[in-house]
Amino acid sequence: xxxxxxxxxxxxxxxxxxxxxxxxxxxxxxxxxxxxxxxxxxxxxxxxxxxxxxxxxxxxxxxxxxxxxxxxxxxxxxxxxxxxxxxxxxxxxxxxxxxxxxxxxxxxxxxxxxxxxxxxxxxxxxxxxxxxxxxxxxxxxxxxxxxxxxxxxxxxxxxxxxxxxxxxxxxxxxxxxxxxxxxxxxxxxxxxxxxxxxxxxxxxxxxxxxxxxxxxxxxxxxxxxxxxxxxxxxxxxxxxxxxxxxxxxxxxxxxxxxxxxxxxxxxxxxxxxxxxxxxxxxxxxxxxxxxxxxxxxxxxxxxxxxxxxxxxxxxxxxxxxxxxxxxxxxxxxxxxxxxxxxxxxxxxxxxxxxxxxxxxxxxxxxxxxxxxxxxxxxxxxxxxxxxxxxxxxxxxxxxxxxxxxxxxxxxxxxxxxxxxx
Length: 421
Ligand code: ADP
Ligand code: ASP
Ligand code: MG
Hints:
- By secondary structure, the protein is of the alpha/beta class.
- Helices cover 33% and strands 25% of the residues.
- The protein starts with a strand and ends in a 17-residue tail after the last helix.
- Bound molecules: adenosine-5'-diphosphate, aspartic acid and magnesium ion.
- The site of magnesium ion has 4 residues, from loops.
């Protein structure tokens, strides 16, 4: 008997009909003689709706209370799914994150898993039941409080459970057939990858491809869990995220894919005195806000003024906090003014083949130039090139780059459900 961990995303359990469809799929896996552990997300866009509700009653909701609220979404789907399975004549039991033994640190809204003790899950399996676990939540032993792992964190719950229970593969069921060369909602000609290395998947996830949550990829890599991303709407083989360190190989092209992030903003510090120590001063202040900054560009200083501009990108959610903090330090640092721009987008081209090929940046910039798209910032890593463009031109940019790197497939990709929110 093998143990299978399956995770169903919100778009796969959006309504009663979908929950029954998923229940049927789980029952089939059980009937085939497997032990089944299921991790489930909140129905449809429920988490977004709960966040909206919270900000209606409080502009900056308390982290503890927001976590308490959001975890309710997964409780609804897990219990409904267990009911549906039971009504098909199979035993199923649902568990919250804490009941499933997901111990985390105390960071509300982005807690990290510190230990997984799935004793009750093991007991449920031994009793012949399907165990259903609420995704994206845990508890902190010190505070005794409920925590969440961050948006999209149900993927991490599933991979962590797979690791703790010794499952070799963790299946992530979603509304597309796997990991594509680009978001199929933006590039309908995107191609499904049969395999991708965890290294490339990490870069794509970090750059905004929300098909897999970055921490889930990290966790799988560290614990030797293979992730299989596939559709809950058909039986097609999906994409395997494999670890080359474990002897797995990937026969794909030089470029794995393109990701887009519309969740970043750009802050420009205008008129910074161009003397040693100013960048250190500014970024020490920014670091104090715990914002995760991404790209940084410093302009050449104008000779007659001795002043320069420094721009950086950061998650939009951190924008107001960082602006306020920097403004408070205006006199001390001695800059002229601050500019805030949330109409930017980041496009990232990812591929392990970049290590050994040349001319990739030139090809990327040429494709953008020919599509009439202006590049505002550039950054690179060993296997990624990222550029910042205007938000309203990024979709054209992705399509142009996708075609330039010959990533287009012969068939149109299907998005089976979901609002893409
Ligand atoms: P779930 O509700 O199952 O967690 P998500 O909405 O979090 O689903 O993730 C699936 C979505 O990710 C797809 O519908 C697709 O629009 C988006 N996506 C972004 N980049 C990619 C990519 N490279 N391959 C596949 N899907 C992608
Ligand atoms: N429901 C949570 C969210 O929407 C967690 C998840 O779906 O992974 O972010
Ligand atoms: Mg998701």
